[in-house]
Amino acid sequence: MTTDNRPAPPFGRALCAMITPFTEAGALDLDGAQRLADRLVSGGCDGLVLSGTTGESPTTTDAEKAALITAVREAVGDRASLLAGVGTADTRHTVELALAAEKAGADGLLVVAPYYSKPPQEALEAHFRQVADGCGLPVALYDIPGRTGTRIEPDTMVRLAGHPRIVAVKDCAYDLLGTQKVLSRTGLAYYAGCDEQILALYAVGAAGYVSTVANAVPDRLRAVLDAFDAGDTGRAALLQRRALPLIELMMAAGLPGTVTAKALLGALGLPAGPVRAPLRPAGRETVDGLLRAYGTLVADGGQSQV
């Protein structure tokens, strides 16, 4: 077994950034959400992130966000932690969503840096502190400057780590040096938010991952962490590489992960439904490619030995 001093993962190791299923008419599909959540947890997910980027949070209402938490909690019970995406461009609104998530049964909050207004670091820090002070749930900071336009700088992370309810980071900053600096100076639990970095960040001390690709293959990604924890780092690397074709098609082929995840799940007959505008569905060629990569990955007989 591998041993190190990484913090205990506050929300588990293997988390899925779950899509939000809709009906064909575009309404919230709570039954589908419950069935998908049960499948993901049964497949190895320790936790689910609801209403994140993959969950189409910009296009769901506050009431839909709360209803989704309540429904998924009913489906998974205490088998998995639930993180609610509550980040908005408005601090006051974010606090309101945090309180609603707490009431609906969430275990923690995922709070993205405010987008569009591009607050400086001092204002950014104040925003996160106000949200963390505003309710009783633990907070995971969501650092994804490619979408928000604002980086949560490592020094800001270090200062925020002193807050008793700021406990984790979903890392989509693509800054391995910065991540290691924060890991070395704080007890924050880092979660890889980019599927191609799952093993790389775990190897330097991350707590686990928040994965979009896990919507389709939760067991295959969990196996990477399990192999590493068992001390079989070579197998962990092999399993990460085997997942790469599907990861690339879902996350780096020019379409948002929400679009590709829903396309693949729908093609597999799993709860998904359409995306909401302004997103548009994937084309037939994309769906066929996703199915081929998925089929190759799940047909790998060696996986069953993990």
TrEMBL record:
* Site description Part of a proton relay during catalysis, residues in chain: T53, Y116
From the UniProt record, give the pathway where this protein acts: Amino-acid biosynthesis; L-lysine biosynthesis via DAP pathway; (S)-tetrahydrodipicolinate from L-aspartate: step 3/4
- InterPro entries this protein is in? Aldolase_TIM, DapA, DapA-like, Schiff_base-form_aldolases_AS, Schiff_base-form_aldolases_CS
Q: List residues binding pyruvate.
A: T54, V210
- Which Gene Ontology BP annotations are present? diaminopimelate biosynthetic process; lysine biosynthetic process via diaminopimelate
Gene Ontology cellular-component terms for this entry are: cytosol
Q: Which residues form the active site?
A: Y142 (proton donor/acceptor), K170 (schiff-base intermediate with substrate)
Q: Does the keyword Transmembrane apply?
A: no
The protein's matches in Pfam families, at most eight in alphabetical order, are given as: DHDPS
Give the family this protein belongs to, as stated in its UniProt record.
Belongs to the DapA family.
Q: What role does this protein play?
A: Catalyzes the condensation of (S)-aspartate-beta-semialdehyde [(S)-ASA] and pyruvate to 4-hydroxy-tetrahydrodipicolinate (HTPA).
Tell me the protein's name: 4-hydroxy-tetrahydrodipicolinate synthase
Q: Which organism is it from?
A: Streptomyces griseicoloratus
This chain is encoded by the gene named dapA
